[in-house]
Amino acid sequence: MGGLREYKSFAGGSWNALRGKYRYSLDGVWRDGHRDLYNNHIGNQIAAYAKENRLPRKAIAYLVLDAVNTKQLVLNEFEDPRVGVLSFVDPKYKGPSWDGLKRMKHVLGLEWP
Hints:
The chain is mainly alpha-helical. The protein has helices spanning 4-18, 32-52, 58-69, 98-108.
């Protein structure tokens, strides 16, 4: 078990592997930074969740994938109102979905109540 900083670093790396390649909107407005800030907040919360629940580091990748599947991360900053030019919603990680927990438990062989 590593420290929270190690978990956060791994969560960020998992997200970077999944992130899209969009950079500019048609009007040239830089939104990529808004998306990155939003997703970094969620990534930090995912890392804290993994640490608090004493999950192995490998579980973070499944938590990030589940966050993508449940639309908790911003994939397209042009279509997602959470990262508009004039708005920035404070990101809150809702935790993994039930399906995500089952998949993670099965693949990683975790004991779960």
